[in-house]
Amino acid sequence: MFKVYSSYGVWVAIVLIAYFLLLKLIGLHQYPVLSAVNGIIFGIGIYMALKKYASRKNKFQYEKGFEVGLLCGGIASIIFTIFMAIYMYQIDTEFAANIMEVWNLEYDMGTLMLVLSILIMGFSTTLVLTLAFMQLLKNSWNTQDGNRNTL
């Protein structure tokens, strides 16, 4: 299980970083609305991790699948947040100020607020997507075998 969520989590982070750098190359990294694609990237990575884990097990347990989804997205969120912190503090120090200007905030909240926002958005996206995908992948009780589990 560790191999599944760690490898997919790292790959999701790599794709997120590549997407951000592509936006930087084009000059569109200043527009926060384009970070909605991050949710799609998270979704694809978490779903693939859950499918891979489910294919290895003949009896798919909800708790274990939920753990795989959360840890996959958590690893990706942490790695991407570390990258963005390095980027904002070391490479492009004006990036945070430009984002705050786009958001029309009149007070300086600093770069740390953006870093925390990225981390919280990553964790919340992970939680919501994992809950949604587990509904698709869990075993249904609406079968002949499931009828024995009713009162």
From TrEMBL:
InterPro entries from the UniProt entry: DUF4199
Keywords, comma-separated and alphabetical: Membrane, Transmembrane, Transmembrane helix
Transmembrane segments: 7-27, 33-50, 70-89, 109-134
Matches recorded under Pfam families: DUF4199 (PF13858)
Protein's name according to its UniProt entry: DUF4199 domain-containing protein
